[in-house]
């Protein structure tokens, strides 16, 4: 790595002379193993500076960009001024690192030269030379390679050392035995695989272990006696290969040496070498045995033979288990090949037989073998289970529900879960899932149901007491119930498509909730985990099932019974509430608060409960806002109809005196209230009749105090201006059909309507179909004679009727008109409009008007 610098030299006057600019590097000096600083001129590539880095502390760093030192060769001060601080830091760190290595090498070389400078071979192994040999072995780290070479070069060193050990042991020479112990331990600490290969051979290993028995710091141990007498080598099948036997014995003894004799003296590097030896030996043993076809065939022949004794069969099963375990030392390809060969030999048939044994330890050993196959390749076991139509699977489920005492573990559960795992690739997965749900799901549920209380599963709050679950329960261990519940939770997550057809139809959820009545809190938590798994599916049908069957009640009861205790049950329920709130599951949210808030209110100080209530209130507010918007939209669409109802109610409340006055002047009001109409039925562009005589009755003294509501003016004006379109008229009029029926029930208020409201209806009819406007004035004339001239006899008839008679005949005329008028008298678009307005057209003309005004338009 190059760095740009300026080179300075201190002159005799005490000033720095610039020697030039170049790039500095750290490199080896020519024909030397020493490192130095090289500065090469950036212009002509000439060497500006060549300095051998010294181990002496002569270097100084100034201002992060300058390194200076006194060069002993030139007897002057030199300095390097760097352009960048990073370059200065790099060179400075390099110099400091080299100085540290130089100090270390100096110390090591001093030790080497003091002890082994002229040593070409180890001294002869004698009792008198043991101290010198020990000094050579413990000479130091820098001398390890040299000592290792000397030991390996001397072919008889270990043999002579072991012979001397046996002599000292026979003579009980403890000083010599202690020295030999230290020498052997020092050789082991050299951590040389080549030396280990010699020491741990069959000829020397027992003597090496004997040397290590004489540790001066501890009392004498009898390791050899233990290995020879107490350790028994069992052969399930006689092994004829001597190499296999040698490796098996060596593996055990090296492990004993590592774990028992020298556990405190060995460092991680030595332990790693010991493990490497063991691993290598295991691979050799398995490879040699698997290639021996005679050995494998004899093994399975004995396993399948009915004449094999129980003890021998147990030994064979343990051997198969150890054999499969050691196969992990093989490469993956060879391990796959071995396991498939074992399957072809019928190992699963053997394990199926083992799983039916009365010896629980043997059953668990067989289960461990299945787990080894499952961990290597689950498809191997899955294919066998599907091919045998679930015979082995049935044994696994049966043993999972069996009490194994203190040896009960979760092996069966793990194997079943692995077989049912939907994320594991394989063609046989669906077949095994079908087998499980068709044959074994009910079996698991029956185990839970057998633990139900005597009250038939009534899960009320009274059942959650100190003695709940103590009666009516079978002898199923709680650990088994826990495994069953965990397996069901696993199935919910792995096979959600099975929830409706297998879980809901068979009331599995209700039965699992029986566990909430148990005394064991971890079973209650397991049931809550099952519900939590179901809720996580966010299935609306499933949530409606919860609400319909009130399935949260046992969970709430258990939560209430738990009180303020902060435990796993409390956390599980709160986490369930928190999930419902965060995922905004509205059905469950309303169900929880509406049904159980009276019980949960005392826990409102908990953040999860409080947040649940806040979310519920927000849900109600949002629902109320949407409802209000809908109502406002409906009111807006029915606004005109509502206004006319107000108008009708107002006039229905008028006094009888005002009604009589209106009836007296009804006949003469038509001339002024109706707009000008030509003979052909068309209207002129005169002002609207609303402003001419609808409100202002100048000639009617009886109506001087009459003041219509201001709102009516606006409403009528809006209608006059906005009803020029025919479709809009049909839409508005069709909403007013019920009004004539209500008016018939109020004969008292009939006349005011004829005076005012009928004028409005006349105006609207004129705006739509002016040619037939006048026809509405006479409802007693047949439809074929309706024209402008038909108004005159009708007006004369009404003019001859006094006020008292008119009020009595109004209702009769009203009813008769309704029966006589037919939709054929009008166009289809005005059918409803004419029917609604026919009651008020008799009195459209104002007082003092003549019938000719309606015809001539004057």
UniProtKB/TrEMBL annotation:
Annotated Polar residues bias: 662-687, 777-791
Region annotation (Disordered) ranges: 643-753, 775-858
GO terms of molecular function: protein phosphatase activator activity
Main location (coarse class): nucleus
GO cellular component assignments: nucleoplasm; protein phosphatase 4 complex
Domain PP4R3 EVH1-like per the UniProt entry, residue ranges: 3-102
Domain called Serine/threonine-protein phosphatase 4 regulatory subunit 3-like central: residue spans: 135-618
Bias-annotated ranges (Basic and acidic residues): 706-715, 794-805
InterPro entries (UniProt xref): ARM-like (IPR011989), ARM-type_fold (IPR016024), EVH1_PP4R3 (IPR055236), P4R3-like_central_dom (IPR006887), PH-like_dom_sf (IPR011993), PP4R3-like (IPR051137)
Compartments, as annotated in UniProt: Nucleus
Keywords recorded for this protein, A-Z: Nucleus
Residue ranges of the TM segments: none
Name of one Pfam family that matches: EVH1_PP4R3
UniProt feature, compositional bias: Acidic residues: 645-660, 696-705
Name of the molecule in the record: Serine/threonine-protein phosphatase 4 regulatory subunit
């Amino acid at each position: 790595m190059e760095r740009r610098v300026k080179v300075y030299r201190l002159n005799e006057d005490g000033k720095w002379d610039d020697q030039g600019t170049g790039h500095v590097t750290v490199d080896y000096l020519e024909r030397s193993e020493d490192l130095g600083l090289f500065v090469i001129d950036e212009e002509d590539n000439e060497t500006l500076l060549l300095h051998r880095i010294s181990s002496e502390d002569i270097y100084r760093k100034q201002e992060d960009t300058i390194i200076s030192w006194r060069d002993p060769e030139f007897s002057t001060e030199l300095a390097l001024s760097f352009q960048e601080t990073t370059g200065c830091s790099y060179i400075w760190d390099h110099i400091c690192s080299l100085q540290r290595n130089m100090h270390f090498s100096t110390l090591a070389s001093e030790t080497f030269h003091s002890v082994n400078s002229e040593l070409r071979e180890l001294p002869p192994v004698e009792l008198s030379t043991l101290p010198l040999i020990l000094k050579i072995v413990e000479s130091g780290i820098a001398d390890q390679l040299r000592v290792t070479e000397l030991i390996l070069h001397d072919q008889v060193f270990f043999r002579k050392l072991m012979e001397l050990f046996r002599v000292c042991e026979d003579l009980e020479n403890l000083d010599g035995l202690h020295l030999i112990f230290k020498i052997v331990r020092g050789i082991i600490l050299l951590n040389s695989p080549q030396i280990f290969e010699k020491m741990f051979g069959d000829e020397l290993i027992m003597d090496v272990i004997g040397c290590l028995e004489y540790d001066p710091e501890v009392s004498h141990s009898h390791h050899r006696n233990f290995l020879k007498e107490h350790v028994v080598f069992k052969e399930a099948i006689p092994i004829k290969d001597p190499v296999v036997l040698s490796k098996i014995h060596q593996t055990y003894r090296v492990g004993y040496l590592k774990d028992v004799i020298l556990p405190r003296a060995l460092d991680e590097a030595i332990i790693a070498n010991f493990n490497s030896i063991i691993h290598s030996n295991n691979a050799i043993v398995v490879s040699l045995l698997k290639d021996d076809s005679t050995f494998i065939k004899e093994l399975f022949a004995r396993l399948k033979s009915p004449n094999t004794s129980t003890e021998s069969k147990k030994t064979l099963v343990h051997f198969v288990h150890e054999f499969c375990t050691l196969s992990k030392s093989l490469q993956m390809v060879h391990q796959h090949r071995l396991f498939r060969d074992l399957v072809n030999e019928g190992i699963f048939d053997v394990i199926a037989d083992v799983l039916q044994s009365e010896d629980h330890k043997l059953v668990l050993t067989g289960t461990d073998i299945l787990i080894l196959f499952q961990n290597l390749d689950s498809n191997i076991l899955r294919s066998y289970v599907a091919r045998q139509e679930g015979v082995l699977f049935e044994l696994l489920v049966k043993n999972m529900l069996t009490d194994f005492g203190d040896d009960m573990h979760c092996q069966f559960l793990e194997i079943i879960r692995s077989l049912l795992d939907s994320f594991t690739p394989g063609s046989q997965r669906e077949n095994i899932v079908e087998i499980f749900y068709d044959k074994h799901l009910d079996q698991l549920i029956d185990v839970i149901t057998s633990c139900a209380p005597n009250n038939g599963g009534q899960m009320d709050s009274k059942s959650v007491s100190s003695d709940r679950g103590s009666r009516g329960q079978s002898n199923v261990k709680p650990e088994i119930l826990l495994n069953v519940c965990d397996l069901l939770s696993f199935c919910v997550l792995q096979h959600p498509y099975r929830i409706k057809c297998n879980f809901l139809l068979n009331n599995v959820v209700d039965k699992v909730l029986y566990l909430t009545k148990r005394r064991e809190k971890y079973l209650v938590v397991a049931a809550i985990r099952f519900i939590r798994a179901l809720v996580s599916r966010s299935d609306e049908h499933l949530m409606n099932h919860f609400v319909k069957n009130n399935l949260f009640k046992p969970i709430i009861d258990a939560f209430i019974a738990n009180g303020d205790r902060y435990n796993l049950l409390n956390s599980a329920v709160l986490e369930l509430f928190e999930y419902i709130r965060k995922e905004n599951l509205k059905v469950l949210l309303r169900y929880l608060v509406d049904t159980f808030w009276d019980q949960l209110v005392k826990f409102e100080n908990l953040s999860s409960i409080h947040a649940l209530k806040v979310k519920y209130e927000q849900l109600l507010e949002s629902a109320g806002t949407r409802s209000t918007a809908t109502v406002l939209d409906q009111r807006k669409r029915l606004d005109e109809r509502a206004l006319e109802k107000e108008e009708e109610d107002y006039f229905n409340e008028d006094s009888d005196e005002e009604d009589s006055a209106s009836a007296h002047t009804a006949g003469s009001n038509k001339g002024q209230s109706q707009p000008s109409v030509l003979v052909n039925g068309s209207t002129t562009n005169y002002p609207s009749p609303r402003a001419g005589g609808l409100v202002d009755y100048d000639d009617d003294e009886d109506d001087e105090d009459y003041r219509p509501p201001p709102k009516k003016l606006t409403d009528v004006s809006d209608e006059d201006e906005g009803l020029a379109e025919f479709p809009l008229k049909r839409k508005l009029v069709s909403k007013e059909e019920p009004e004539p029926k209500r008016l018939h029930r109020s004969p008292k208020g009939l006349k005011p309507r004829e005076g005012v409201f009928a004028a409005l209806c006349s105006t609207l009819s004129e705006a739509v179909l002016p040619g037939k406007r006048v026809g509405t004035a006479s409802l007693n004339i047949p439809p074929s004679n309706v024209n402008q001239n038909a108004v005159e006899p009708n007006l004369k008839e009404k003019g001859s009727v006094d006020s008292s008679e008119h009020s009595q005949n109004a209702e009769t005329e009203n009813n008769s008109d309704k029966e006589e008028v037919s939709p054929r008298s009008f166009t289809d678009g005005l059918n409803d409009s004419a029917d609604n307005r026919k009651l008020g057209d008799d009195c459209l003309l104002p007082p003092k008007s003549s019938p000719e005004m309606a015809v001539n338009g004057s």
